[in-house]
């Protein structure tokens, strides 16, 4: 069998761990995934943690499975991406102490220590909350002195995975944007931000750009995976940024990244902020470019859970067929997605339909309502970004597994009046983005397939009415919270 150059790309999401083997052209030769395991930390009201040692074993196991599925692969490079706010704490010898995922909110009790939140927004591009890494560190310092006394440094999860592969500790710029300790416009760690949280700048590793070469894979890891010890480890970045890269967008383009959550972003050439502090601004993995973002929150996760209830033994193709045949749009939903202009997240939601129960109401009605809720939440956040930063192209890029649903793509096109464009391989956007980064590091022209699938808007007036009905439903549930 002829050998084929390929890369290992590890992707640590909020819900699962995936390891893919991809070619320089972005073709996925093998991919394995498992759920990521969290445990509650009873010392806080809302805290989750994970065992870094167990996660590393999981990554190695999945890498072996993916390599077994791609015997022709000759690994030239390795990179990683991950959920953006999660971190791993290290001691002075580089030993992993504990892992804190993005959904860990142990720092919520100490949000009050930030006396000037607008100043933090100006420097970091995000309104400071317990979602971000600095307050996770504060939570450890205040209630787990036995761990804090050993903590010498910390890394984002993707930087930590690359550290495990290479032995080189660093922090990539898009991931640093999520810490509240990084001056996003100046592209450097900030002593002033560290002082706000009472954290020493000595905790902060060296910054490195995405696509920079960290060195060769550690010999013991190469031996365990049976890959060449000359394979290099390449700095990756945040999962949203790698997905964006897979669409190959230009400055001023908008991109929808549809997964467990759904970031909606505009690529800008300068540091952009919202006067009402509703948005996030991060460094992109492309030099000189920024990611201006609103996030619709748990959209794909809602869809997955509704499928488990209504279609536990059937595939997504059955859902799509029933949605395509659905002619009754009277069932509406509000299921806790996020809107950038709402100060408080909705913690109660549900479905609304005419009473008494109509014989026309089916399981497809509930999934349709869920899909409309996802699409309208995306569109509302899109409108906020466009209001602040403008958006003139007649298209929006899309990527991520959620956009495998043709119904969702068509709804977004109809509600925005913009074409929705997806490049070939959009379902595996992190793997394609990782392949592009490895190509840059190795100086390879990957010659990716540039086929673009386009969904055109239809019947916009009718869908404007559906959007208005969804807004009424949203208001109803907002008043209940």
UniProtKB/TrEMBL annotation:
<dbReference type="InterPro" id="IPR018484">
    <property type="entry name" value="FGGY_N"/>
</dbReference>
<dbReference type="Pfam" id="PF00370">
    <property type="entry name" value="FGGY_N"/>
</dbReference>
<dbReference type="InterPro" id="IPR043129">
    <property type="entry name" value="ATPase_NBD"/>
</dbReference>
<dbReference type="GO" id="GO:0016301">
    <property type="term" value="F:kinase activity"/>
</dbReference>
<dbReference type="InterPro" id="IPR050406">
    <property type="entry name" value="FGGY_Carb_Kinase"/>
</dbReference>
<dbReference type="Pfam" id="PF02782">
    <property type="entry name" value="FGGY_C"/>
</dbReference>
<protein>
    <submittedName>
        <fullName>FGGY family carbohydrate kinase</fullName>
    </submittedName>
</protein>
<keyword id="KW-0418">Kinase</keyword>
<feature type="domain" description="Carbohydrate kinase FGGY C-terminal">
    <location>
        <begin position="350"/>
        <end position="439"/>
    </location>
</feature>
<keyword id="KW-0808">Transferase</keyword>
<feature type="domain" description="Carbohydrate kinase FGGY N-terminal">
    <location>
        <begin position="7"/>
        <end position="243"/>
    </location>
</feature>
<dbReference type="InterPro" id="IPR018485">
    <property type="entry name" value="FGGY_C"/>
</dbReference>
<dbReference type="InterPro" id="IPR000577">
    <property type="entry name" value="Carb_kinase_FGGY"/>
</dbReference>
<comment type="similarity">
    <text>Belongs to the FGGY kinase family.</text>
</comment>
